[in-house]
Amino acid sequence: MILPSGLSIEENRPLAPLTTLGIGGPARWFARLSSESQLVEAFTWARTCNLPVFVLGGGSNLVVADSGFDGLVLQSDLRGISRSFQDDLCLFRAAAGEPWDTFVTEAIAADCAGIECLAGIPGTVGGTPVQNVGAYGQEVAETIRRVRVLDRATLQFHEMEAADCSFSYRQSIFNSTARDLFVVTAVEFALLPGGAPLLRYADLQRAFADQLSPTLSAVADRVRAIRRSKGMLLVPGDPDVRSAGSFFRNPVVTTAEFAALAQRLGAPPPSYPAGEHRIKLPAAWLIEQAGFARGFRLGNVGISSRHTLALINCDGGTADELLALRDQIADAVYARFGIRLEMEPVLLGF
Question: Tens digits of per-residue pLDDT, 272-329?
Fold first, then answer.
């Protein structure tokens, strides 16, 4: 089916190959978008057909149901990166369909600091503000200036300032209070030309302990190496990368809850500061202490041999198997620590 804008809509498109997990059934309807006008037309068509719509990015943070999705899946292929300057900052505006790591590489080539520790993360630019993507001491919320979105109700485009996005740990209005109300089409980042790389993460501090001023590219390369060692860098043929990245968020508790947990355990567990009166606990440690080791398998799914937070598709795994493993892990952690783990990936078709 071809719409007037030239948008081609396919029927019964398999979704598993479009995700890093490689799990799930087909989309009843599917289209790949290359312009904002096609995005509007696709939503208009879906509205006339009374179809639910899901916008797919790089498929790196997604679990598709075995039965698939009985609606229209739109994959963003909006491209383009532009630059401008304001005061001492370089403003990069990247379209939602740009691969994230490609954008990081371009920013570093321009000697602009602010996202170097986010190198190697799979997915697209459009997905980064949704869950406030972060790793190794940085979050995109620290550099996002504004987000261009389509209002799904009015089909009008708006520029949202960062302050309007309610960014917090792995969260924004796009995956919480305004879930399914907007579609991100572009993101503007304010980066610092000639800035020094951020060495907030312990592994990076150790790696560059003998260097006074490591380059942005050296830090990004080191981050990619760390990600690869943990099975978190997409490498063809590596079975440990058939995952959705970190499957569970690191839980954040109050200082009072942390004190009670430490008393219960007889010693304080590993932790990190997470703001005023808040403490972050490493989900990987909680999972391991609850009895789940790297390499654990449940049917055709399991835990990565290199990172406890990554649940992987071992060989022909299903979404039902994956969620059964999720529940088994979460229940064991709750029984051991009284803490409910929250999953990071988005569920589609359940």
Answer: 888 888 999 999 999 999 999 999 999 999 999 999 999 999 989 999 999 999 999 9
Question: For residue 247, what are its two tokens?
Answer: 């499957």
* 291 CB-near residues (< 8 Å, 6+ apart): 332, 336
Fold assignment, 81-229:
3.30.465
Active site residue 76: no
Q: Which residue in 41, 98, 116, 344 is the catalytic one?
A: 344
Q: Which residue in 148, 170, 222, 227 is the catalytic one?
A: 170
- Cα–chain center distance at 295: 23
344 is catalytic: yes
pTM flag (> 0.85): yes
Does residue 170 have an active-site annotation? yes
Domain residue extents for the chain = 10-76, 81-229, 239-348
pLDDT in tens, 163-213: 999 999 889 999 999 999 999 999 999 999 999 999 988 889 998 988 878
**Which is the catalytic residue, given 60, 172, 243, 246?**
246
Q: Decide yes or no: CATH 1.25.40.10 for domain 239-348.
A: no
Fold of the domain built from segment(s) 10-76 = 3.30.43
